[in-house]
């Protein structure tokens, strides 16, 4: 099982990014997949989840209305669309399936 995140980078406040999580060794459509983030000095925070059936869990208040999780079964990938980014969204973002984690992708929000 491998998870590989990409798409992070530097964006100005109010900007958008789309993170990708490409999976190998299993089929994403048969598992619940999650995105987490961790800022320096803070605990890892769950931000989005999509179930095996495609159902999306309610987002935490910190990202509700701005972040959207989706899945492309043909590409065996999960995405996190992030809009209206704020400085407090800056963190390392991780893709997760059960006990498996990707290496993370860094998101920096700064003017």
Could you please describe the fold and organization of this structure?
With 111 residues, this protein is an all-beta fold. It has no helices and ten strands. It has strands spanning 2-6, 9-11, 17-24, 33-38, 45-50, 67-72, 77-82, 91-97, 100-101, 105-109. Strands 2, 4, 5, 8, 9 and 10 form a six-stranded mixed β-sheet that branches. Strands 1-3-7-6 form a four-stranded antiparallel β-sheet, with no helix packed on it. Strand 4 (33-38) and strand 5 (45-50) form a beta hairpin. It is globular. The mean pLDDT is 97.
Biggest β-sheet description? 6 strands, mixed
Write down the overall geometry.
Answer: globular
Oligomeric description of these chains: single chain
Strands, total number: 10
* Nearest-integer average pLDDT: 97
Which percent band covers the strand fraction?
Answer: over 45%
| H/E series | EEEEEEEEEE
- Tally of separate helices: 0
Rg from C-alpha positions?
Answer: 13 Å
* Structural class determined from secondary elements: mainly beta
How far apart are the first and last residues' alpha carbons, in Å? 37 Å
Please give the share of residues in helix: under 10%
Weakly predicted, low-confidence segments: none
Question: What are the salient characteristics of this protein?
Answer:
mainly beta; six-stranded mixed sheet; 10 strands
Secondary structure layout:
Layout: E1 2-6, E2 9-11, E3 17-24, E4 33-38, E5 45-50, E6 67-72, E7 77-82, E8 91-97, E9 100-101, E10 105-109
Parallel strand pairs: 2-10
Antiparallel strand pairs: 1-3, 3-7, 4-5, 4-8, 6-7, 8-9, 8-10
């Amino acid at each position: 099982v491998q998870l590989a995140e990409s798409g992070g980078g530097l964006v100005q406040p109010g900007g958008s990014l789309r993170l990708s999580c490409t999976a190998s060794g299993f089929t994403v459509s048969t598992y619940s997949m999650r995105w987490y983030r961790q800022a320096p000095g803070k605990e890892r925070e769950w931000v989005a989840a999509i179930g095996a059936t495609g159902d999306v869990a309610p987002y935490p208040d910190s990202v509700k209305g701005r972040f959207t999780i989706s899945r492309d079964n043909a590409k065996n990938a999960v995405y996190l669309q992030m809009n209206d980014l704020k400085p407090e969204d800056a963190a390392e973002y991780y893709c997760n399936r059960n006990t498996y984690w990707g290496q993370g992708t860094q998101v920096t929000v700064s003017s």
